[in-house]
Specification:
It is a single chain. The protein is 25% helix and 27% strand. The protein is an alpha+beta fold. The relative contact order is 0.11.
Length: 314
């Protein structure tokens, strides 16, 4: 089976590797154009483009699948297109090119969390289980019939980055199995059923923490926005990024956002929420690297006794 692979970020690389390792004939790779990276804004190939080059595969670079990209896609004469986080819409004319259409690996249990950030929304909203599906791409947003499904438990400490990494590897196996099943004529996609929910791309504001929310909601938002767009709070008008936090259900006397430093063998930095306190593990002040919260707290001028600092996160 001749396969066109479409994908852009690192999360798509395991699928490309799996298809090649499992003997599928990947005839070309479609990915987004080189983008500026780092402080010097150096034009850099996408992770999928870089991996395709290592594998010696032809690469089509396009941010939008326009007439030129459609002509290049047609020229590779693929039987099927496998797509994983390409980052752009596939227009109707392109959908019709491969004989078996486009098979999308999506990281949710459709029709739950249709959209660009399914794993992040699943964590933020407190889902216990998520997963991945392969489905036939249609013009609608993640509406096509499903070929295969896998499930994955969401742990209390799971960040979006960690969970997505696990799903990228298990999902790669599912995608390979799906393409082999289609090639053998053994798979028929089944229409989606169940409750529909949407998972739009997260913006910077989605990482802003509301300390008036219960500790559990704050923890989920921190985990769900790690690493992107990143959880943050404000102090004296400056933005501080935070790492994952630990619940402290026995501390209920801190006002939302108020900071308390506990000294001892293991210094601790607590912040009040709408229910009970949470302990900060890491903090990234403006213009600095992420650091242990206790190291950051020393800069607040804490003495040698437990003290509720006269600072409040906003």
């Amino acid at each position: 089976m001749r396969v066109l692979f479409a994908g852009t970020p690192q999360v798509a690389v395991p699928s490309l590797d799996r298809l090649v390792a499992d003997g599928l004939d990947v005839v070309a790779v479609l990915t987004r154009e080189d983008a500026p990276q780092g402080r010097k804004r150096v034009l850099t190939p996408s992770p999928v483009a870089a991996r395709a080059a290592e594998l010696g595969l032809p690469v089509i670079k396009a941010n939008t699948i326009d007439a030129g990209a459609i002509a290049e896609i047609s020229a590779v004469d693929a039987d099927v297109a496998a797509i994983v986080a390409y980052g752009g819409l596939v227009p109707g004319p392109a959908l019709e090119i491969p004989r078996h259409g486009w098979v999308n690996l999506h990281f949710s249990l459709l029709p739950a969390w249709r959209g660009a950030a399914p794993v992040q929304h699943a964590i933020i909203h407190g889902d216990d289980v998520t997963g991945a599906v392969t489905f036939r791409l249609e013009k609608g947003l993640d509406t096509g019939p499903v070929y295969g499904t896998l499930t994955e438990d969401i742990g209390a400490d799971d960040t979006a980055g960690a969970l997505l990494d696990r799903l990228s590897h298990s999902g790669a196996v599912l995608l390979s199995q799906t393409l082999h099943g289609i090639d053998a004529g053994a798979l028929v996609p089944v229409a989606q059923t169940g409750q529909v929910s949407l998972a739009p791309k997260l913006l910077l504001e989605d990482g802003h923490l509301d300390w008036g929310q219960p500790a559990l909601a704050i923890r989920r938002r921190i985990n769900g926005t790690t690493p992107e767009p990143g959880p943050w709070t404000e102090l004296d008008g400056q933005r501080f990024k935070l790492g994952p936090v630990t619940p402290c259900p026995d501390v209920t006397d801190l006002a939302p956002g108020a900071v308390r430093v506990l000294h001892g063998r293991r210094p601790r930095v607590l912040v009040g929420t709408g229910s009970h306190a949470v302990e900060l593990v890491t903090v990234q002040p403006p213009g600095k690297k992420m650091m242990p919260a206790a190291d950051w707290a020393r800069g607040l001028g804490a003495g040698t006794t437990d003290i509720e600092k006269q600072v409040t996160f906003a």
